[in-house]
Amino acid sequence: MNVRALDCGGMFWEGKESYESLDAALQDLNAGLEAVLKDIYG
Fold first, then answer.
1. Where do the domains of the chain lie?
2. CA 7, 5, 8: angle at the middle one, nearest 5?
3. HSE of 12 in the Cβ direction (CA atoms, 13 Å)?
4. pTM
5. Phi first, then psi: what are they for 15, rounded to 5°?
6. How far apart are CA 21 and CA 24, in angstroms?
7. Beta strands in the chain (DSSP E)
8. Other beta carbons less than 10 A from residue 16's beta carbon
9. Model confidence over 3-41: pLDDT tens digits?
10. Most buried one in 6, 27, 28, 32, CB count within 10 A?
11. How many other CB atoms are found less than 10 A from the CB of residue 37?
């Protein structure tokens, strides 16, 4: 399973190629979005 976050401009964030569980994928998505948004908005 691969997790991606998209916005109107395209790929916003892309996770690893596979995860052990859905929970692990969602935790990585949360951390990834937090990092990207922190870079953009401070």
1. 4-41
2. 10
3. 17
4. 0.83
5. -85, -165
6. 5
7. 4-7, 10-14
8. 12
9. 999 989 999 899 999 999 999 999 999 999 999 999 999
10. 32
11. 12
**Could you say which DSSP state residue 31 is in?**
H
Token reading at 8 = 């109107």
- Among residues 41, 38, 32, the alpha carbon closest in space to that of 12 is found at 32
Residue with tokens 């979005």: 33
Q: Which two tokens stand for residue 39?
A: 């870079």
Q: Which two tokens stand for residue 4?
A: 């991606």
Smallest CA-to-CA distance from 29 within 15, 9, 18, 41 is with: 15
CB 40 within 8 A of CB 15: no
